[in-house]
Amino acid sequence: MQADIFCRVVDNYGDIGVCWRLARRLAQGRGWDVRLWVDDLASFAHIQPGIQAQSARQSLNGVDIVHWSPTPDPTLTARDVVIEAFACDPPPAFIDSMRHTHPAWINLEYLSAEAWVESCHGLPSQRPDGLVKHFFFPGFTAATGGLLREPGLTRERDALQASVDQQNDFLRSLGVDDALLLQRRDGARTVSLFCYPTAPAHDLIQALAADPRRSVLLVPQGVAPGLEAACTAPGAPLLARLPFVAQPDFDRVLWSSDLNFVRGEDSFVRAAWAARPLVWQIYAQEENAHLEKLEAWLARYPAPESAHALIRAWNQPETGQTASAVAAAMAPAHWKAWVQAATKWDAEQAALPDLAENLADFCADLAKKR
C-alpha cells in the first residue's frame, strides 16, 4: 500500500504525536510506503530529533515527510490510501487528484470512550463528487479501531520497570541529578508531569509536600513554569526538568514513574501502556463537552473512586479540590488499588488488536471492493 497521512498541528504535540506513531507503525509494521504531510515541522522537531524544520521534504525512519505548505507540490498526487487526521481536509488540488484514483479515504477521528463511537466506526460518507470518506475511530473496545501499540512494547517496558538501575541510567542520560536518583533508590515516589497551562500544578506540589513519602517530580522544559520556587518549600518534591525527547524515550520516562500526569491524546495512551496510575488532563472544549468525554472514560477505567475524584479535580481546577484529592488517592489502601487497576487496564487493552493493524486491514478490505 502507498499512503498519504495529513496532519495539522493544533495543540503543539498531540496531533503530530499520533500521526508520527501511526506513520512508523504502517511503514515498519506493514511495509507501507507512507508519505506524511505536516504543516508545523518546528513542533514535530521537538518530539523527533533529526527533523529539519526548514526542509520541504525529508525522509526519516522509513517515512517520506512533506512540509504541508500553503502551496503544496502539485506533482504529489493521491495514491492507494489517504488518511486525514482529525478532519484536517487535504489540499483542494490533492482532492482533485483523488477523483481520478479513488483511494481509500479515511478520516482518523479523535479518541473517545463514548458509546456512540462504536456505531459510527467505519461508516462511509458519500460526497457529491463521487468520493467516499470512511470514519475510523480509535477506542477502547473491539467494536472500535483500538489504540496504537507497537509489537514487543510490554516486554521492553517490563524489563525497564524491573530494574531501578536501568531506570536511573536512563534518567541520568536525560540530565537528572544523581542526588535525585539516590532518592528514587531510597524509595521516593517518582511523578511525571506533562500538562496544559490550566492544570493546578501548584496544588499538586502542595499535596506532594504533605505526603509522608518523598517525591521526585519529572517535568519537561517549558511545562508548568514557576514550579522551581514552589519546590523549595520544606518537604516539596525534588524537581528535575527534562528536555523534550523522542517518543520512545518519552515512553521510558512514563515507565520509570510511579504516577503519570498526562495531557491530550498521545501521551494519555502512552501512559496507559505504562501500566502505572495515571491522571489525564483532557483537551478542553467549549461548553465543557470534554468533561462528558472524561466521564465516559472514567466509566471504563477500573481505578478506585479516589483516583476518579483526583482526575475530575485535575480537570476542574476551579473547584480547588486537587490537593485533598491527591492526598486521598495516595492513601496506602487507595494507592494499592489504583496500582492494581492500572495493571488490569493495560492487560485488557493490550488484548485487543492495535489501531495500526486494524486500520491497515480496513483499508485492504476497501481496496478489494474498489
TrEMBL record:
One of its GO terms (molecular function) is translation elongation factor activity. Pfam families: EarP. It catalyses: dTDP-beta-L-rhamnose + L-arginyl-[protein] = N(omega)-(alpha-L-rhamnosyl)-L-arginyl-[protein] + dTDP + H(+). The keyword Membrane does not apply. It comes from the Bacteria. Keywords: Elongation factor, Glycosyltransferase, Protein biosynthesis, Transferase. InterPro entries: EarP. NCBIfam families: efp_Arg_rhamno. Belongs to the glycosyltransferase 104 family. Protein-arginine rhamnosyltransferase that catalyzes the transfer of a single rhamnose to elongation factor P (EF-P) on 'Lys-32', a modification required for EF-P-dependent rescue of polyproline stalled ribosomes. This is Protein-arginine rhamnosyltransferase.
